[in-house]
Design goal:
Strand content of chain A: under 5%
Structural class of chain B: mainly alpha
Shape of chain A: elongated
Order of helices and strands of chain B: HHHHHHHHHHHHH
Number of strands of chain A: 0
Number of helices of chain A: 12
Order of helices and strands of chain A: HHHHHHHHHHHH
Number of helices of chain B: 13
Shape of chain B: globular
Radius of gyration of chain A: 23 Å
Number of strands of chain B: 0
Radius of gyration of chain B: 24 Å
Distance between the termini of chain B: 7 Å
Oligomer: heterodimer
Largest interface: A-B, 54 and 67 residues
């Protein structure tokens, strides 16, 4: 009885009086593509309605091929794959030990065996960049994980709790979103000292809050849709309902934000490492390399070009992947591409 | 309107309060002994105890926080742990660099974003329009530090037009020199911020193109461009105002990095130095001022948006 009453409560909300039917209709259709993952993992259960069970394989393929059909999507996938591959290779093999000092080979020009040349202490720049890719991927994945956890936690708070908790969480998110990530990172650095963990934590917090803010309207819409109400009525606990119906339906928005969030993580890592609050000097990092080479830009300008290009390419790849994911997961968005949904990496890094 | 303004003001005050509490708690409650940090590794227990005493760390947390808040309300942000200078004095002095830098960067960002954003929307689907949006995406992905270095290489090292580092000792008493030394840093932040803003301008323009009033105006005999400029652009302007708050936050963050790169004696560089020195009372004050500023800009932007947009006024 209580569940039913709670389920009906939000229906009084004037914002959802009309249009619920149509919006939930599009929801199921767009949710189909992404809910396929949860379908397989959580077994059968009560699926979100009609037609969800049919053709999981083909819808997943359609989603991916739509992503690949976009030139931005192709570029994004390729860049992210290449960076990931380089990071993997760097785990096992590097042309030179990136930290090996070889005074005899200082400032070698690009050529053989130092393909991109060497720096002021004779370290091989290509090896430093490859090892830096490792750091970048690690920070991006870590920050993405933290952001996901915080995003899900805030989404759960926004969907499952009593109205006053929900509203306070919403206000808190609106306030927290004004904190630039770099300032959060510096705040934590003031106490703990700088480290990659600080970067991961601060970007994760900052972007988790961002995800919560962006998915909020979507979540509220799904919360009032028929299949969620049906799920509640059929005896799913709120947490089960969250996993089976709510999260799969906001997943497209979630994943898009995550891709952009990782771009921010890459920029933040570079910026913070440059400022001295990110990677320690023993850890190869693109931002740190920029800091170390800064003193020599007047004499050896070419050496600074490489790490900057690596950062730019990675960020561009992740940004474009996010754009393409948004287009591929929700075709209706392209027409109503509102300014509010264009992302803003600068706030953060 | 009044009612909205009051609600929004309450949210601003709440935001400032939450910000102060968060900053205070993070700097006090995170594991790590502040006194130990300040004293350094070689400090004796007596020295640490003395620092604890002088910082008031032995008092209960709540009264420490209360003392800080009370100070803020009377215009006292605390003083540096290392030099004893009041934070507010130093902030005001450094603002002489950072505020002009920020304003200059914002102007450049708008000068980049408005024409190119509208143009890339009008030329959508054509090669030049595509080139503009691709360019904006690429520039927006460039890290500020690196962009600054590249501009230094070109404009300071190769061409020798602008100084690569520093700010005149006499400050604004030498306005020409001061402006010149801010130009490259401002261009760095402004162009990158402008590239991001350009995407908003583009999508706002595209939206305006599809609106009924623009189509009607075109049907009445204006050219598409005329119709867009007269009826569409005010709406583009509105949507830009709403993202201005984000822009300001971006510029602050950009200034932190760029002041370090160009050796400018501004608020950002001071914050970096203070975090490095673990001058916690100062960091606390500076972070509050910066986040407070971002919140304040958000407040002003929301109010301005309400005032300017007639549709929102009628919705009351």
């Amino acid at each position: 009885m209580t569940t039913l009453r709670r389920a009906q409560g939000p229906e009084d909300d004037p914002s959802t009086s009309s249009g619920t039917e149509t919006s939930s209709g599009t929801e199921t259709s767009s949710g189909t593509e992404t809910s396929s993952g949860t379908e397989t993992s959580s077994g059968t259960g009560t699926s979100s309605g009609t037609g969800t069970s049919s053709g999981n394989g083909t819808t997943r393929l359609a989603w991916l091929s739509r992503l690949w059909a976009l030139s931005t999507g192709r570029f994004g996938i390729l860049v992210v794959a290449v960076i990931g591959l380089v990071a993997l290779v760097a785990l096992l093999w590097l042309p030179f030990d990136p930290q090996r000092v070889d005074i005899g080979a200082r400032w070698a020009p690009p050529g053989w065996p130092h393909v991109l040349g060497t720096d002021n202490s004779g370290r091989d720049i290509l090896s430093l960049l490859m090892a830096g890719a490792r750091t970048t991927v690690w920070v991006a994945l870590g920050a993405g994980l933290v952001a996901t956890l915080i995003g899900i936690l805030l989404a759960a708070l926004g969907a499952l709790t009593a109205r006053w908790v929900r509203e306070s969480v919403a206000v808190a998110v609106d306030i927290l979103i004004a904190f630039p990530v770099l300032l959060i990172a510096m705040m934590i650095s003031a106490v703990w000292g700088g480290s990659l963990w600080v970067v991961i934590l601060s970007v994760g917090i900052g972007f988790g809050v961002n995800i919560a803010r962006v998915t909020r309207p979507e979540l509220r819409r799904v919360l009032h849709s028929d299949f969620v109400l049906a799920g509640r009525a059929s005896g799913l606990t709120p947490v089960q309902n969250l996993w089976r119906h709510l999260l799969p339906n906001v997943a497209p928005v979630f994943i898009v934000q995550l891709s952009w969030g990782m771009a921010v993580a890459v920029l933040a890592e570079a910026g913070l490492s440059y400022l001295g609050f990110g990677a320690p000097s023993t850890e190869p990092s693109w931002g740190l390399l920029l800091k170390e080479l800064q003193a020599y830009i007047t004499v050896y300008p070419l050496s600074v070009v490489w790490p900057g290009l690596a950062i730019t390419l990675t960020v561009l790849g992740l940004n474009l992947l996010g754009d393409a994911l948004r287009e591929a997961t929700d075709p209706t968005l392209t027409r109503r591409a509102s300014a509010a949904q264009t992302h803003q990496p600068a706030v953060i890094a | 309107m009044i009612r909205y303004a009051l609600t929004r003001l309450a949210l601003l005050l709440l935001g400032l309060f939450v910000a102060s509490a968060l900053i205070f708690l993070t700097l006090r409650v995170l594991p790590g002994d502040v006194a130990q940090l300040i004293a350094g590794v070689n400090a004796t227990p007596e020295q640490i105890a003395a620092i604890r005493e002088s910082l008031g760390l032995n008092e209960p947390l709540l009264s420490q926080y209360g003392a800080w808040l009370g100070g803020i309300l009377t215009g006292n942000l605390g003083s540096s742990q290392l030099t004893g200078t009041p934070v507010i004095d130093e902030l005001l002095q450094k603002a002489e660099v950072t505020i002009p830098l920020g304003l200059l960067a914002l102007t450049i960002a708008l000068l980049v974003a408005l024409p190119f954003g509208v143009l890339s929307a009008l030329r959508r689907g054509r090669p030049d329009g595509t080139a503009l949006s691709v360019g904006a995406q690429a520039v927006a992905a460039v890290p500020v530090v690196w962009a600054g270095m590249m501009l230094v290489i070109v404009f300071a090292v190769w061409l020798g037009w602008l100084p690569a580092q520093g700010f005149p000792r006499a400050g604004w008493d030498e306005p020409g020199l001061a402006l010149r030394s801010l130009l490259l840093p401002a261009i760095t932040i402004g162009v990158i911020e402008g590239a991001m803003l350009m995407r908003f301008v583009r999508s706002a323009t595209l939206q305006a193109v599809g609106q009924d009033y623009v189509r009607t105006a075109a049907a009445k005999g204006l050219t598409r461009t005329q119709a867009l400029l007269r009826h569409g652009l005010p709406n583009v302007g509105l949507s830009i105002i709403t993202v201005l708050g984000l822009q300001v936050a971006g510029i602050i963050v950009g200034a932190v990095v760029i002041e370090q790169l160009f050796g400018l004696p501004g608020i950002g560089r001071m914050l970096v130095a203070d975090v490095g020195n673990r001058d916690l009372p100062k960091v606390q004050g500076e972070l509050l001022v910066l986040t407070g500023f971002v919140l304040l800009v958000g407040f002003v932007v929301d109010l301005a948006h309400r005032l300017i947009d007639p549709r929102q006024r009628e919705a009351e």
